[in-house]
């Protein structure tokens, strides 16, 4: 079996070698031979392969020899031909070799040249690459330098755009070079330089804005004043526009034709380019939030620098206040403009916070400095500046409620200052008045007094019309003293100066109207009327009467003052009448003055009547009227013609009527004195004569004094003296006759009449009187002591009492009959 296997392998190798020899091409030959050699080597068949190759070689040689032996001649011929061919081939081969050597030499030269060309092309490419790289790097360097050049020229946004182009475009082309890495590392620093440079420019701009804020506010204030003037002109020409307030929709539409840009005009120009550039750059750098925060912090610091630590309001021109409010206005206008010109940069809450902070700081400064201001003109100037500030900022849609509250505080201060000043004026007027009717020298003075006073002269009694100033005779006298027109002037001035506060701007007109009414009431009631009532303590009736005259005119003037308040009030929504409490106070004060006049007149009357010295038991009749009665009528004549002359007729008549009533009561009390027991007919006649004198005095008054009315005040006295006359004539029984007593003694008190009838003696002798007394009382007649007005014994008093009781009993029966 081993031998058989070896034989088979030999045959296989021989077949394979033969197959290889029969290959059509050298490549196939090698392709088949190489695997056979590799297999023989790996399978340890190298020896069999060699045997197979030798066997095939022997077979080929044997076949060649056989072929040669069969065709020898032909072979020889072929060999010869082959030799000749070989010789030719050798010749050709040598030529070919020569040519090959020549070609090889040429090829080597060409190869060298080609190599040199290739080397040259490589160098050139390297040079080209180096040149392009150098150009790219130079371009990068140029752009980098351009960034710094633009930065030096303060063209920050262009520098940032160039840097962005350099980083995102040109550096990408040279990333394989180290310079790209170096420049890439410097980009953040350059961006920082740009941001720092633009912030420096912005800070410079902000500084200039802060410095310009006051002037900007001044221009804005001037523009508002011009709008005020135009609105007043329109209001004067159009009643409908007269109701429109500044900054109202109607006013804004009417003023549209007047275009004015507060931020860009001939006086001031505010360029927001640095802010826009800074905003764009930080937006490009992705630092918008940081920039917004830094900008807000910077504006807050600037706001703090804007408000001073103290404020002087005593400056006549209010320069400190104007500077403060103009600065705030300019600052706030820039903030509003920034919001309008940018998007989502300045938050509304930040701007409102800045505005509120500035307003509160300004209000605190003004409020702290306000107590030092005691001049109403200075307060008006302060109010004017604040009102201008409010109207200006209201046009920029800033809330001004807190500032309106400041105006209320200022108005309270202003009204109190006015109240104090006018209170002092009233005090001076009251203290310096002469309390005499006011003399008028000429028509011009008369017209001037009437123009300022709430006074309408009485009509001419003949024509019933008011007399013209030029028709009067001068000098003349007005009923009131100079106090009246002076106070009227002060009242008008007080009203005018109160409303001066609301001329330019006021949203609290109702408060101003009410304050004016209350303060005017307070001035008149608690100051002026109090001062006048204090003057009522005077002992001079003439002064009291003049005060009463003035009070009467002031009471009448209250109606005109109320009408003036209604027509002048600034609140368009207010309606209805205005009622001054001072009217009632004047009425009360007038009543007090009347009472004081009554007190003084009655006191004088009492003093005069107290001087009456009647001898009630006199036995003779005096030849004339008593001295006290003459003095009394002279006093009455004096007060009628001088003291009471200036009073209105109603008050004058009432006072004279009251005085006569008082005289009647006092005269009646004389015979009714409990100490007087008896009155002689002669004493009664003297008493009746005195009463008749005063009645005659009243009857002799002018018809203008209405004596018939005044006589009613003495009617009871007249009827009583008539009864005394009857009693003296012994006809006292007529008092108890109802048919006579009703019309003749209707005013006489029944008990007092009965008492007088008991006291008055009829014209008879003392003896007869004693007999009558004994008959009535059941006792003895009058003693000499009793006749002389002396005291009584107990029994006599008892009898007199019994007699009085008899009369009263009869009076009771008379009353029942009546």
Walk me through what this model shows:
The chain is mostly helical and 818 residues long. The N terminus and C terminus are likely disordered. Helix 4 runs antiparallel to helix 5 and helix 13 packs antiparallel against helix 14. It has a two-stranded antiparallel ribbon with strand order 1-2. It contains 29 helices and two strands. Helices cover 74% and strands 1% of the residues.
Please specify the SSE layout and strand pairing.
Layout (H helix, E strand, L loop, with lengths): L1 H20 L4 H17 L3 H25 L1 H81 L3 H18 L4 H60 L1 H4 L6 H6 L18 H12 L3 H19 L12 H23 L6 H22 L6 H20 L5 H32 L5 E3 L2 H10 L23 E3 L4 H18 L8 H27 L5 H28 L12 H30 L16 H17 L5 H21 L11 H19 L7 H4 L4 H14 L9 H7 L5 H10 L6 H12 L6 H4 L6 H24 L1
Antiparallel strand pairs: 1-2
Helix pairs in contact: 1-2, 1-3, 4-5, 4-6, 5-6, 6-9, 6-11, 6-13, 11-12, 11-13, 12-14, 13-14, 14-16, 14-17, 16-17, 16-18, 17-18, 17-19, 18-19, 19-21, 20-22, 21-24, 22-24, 26-29
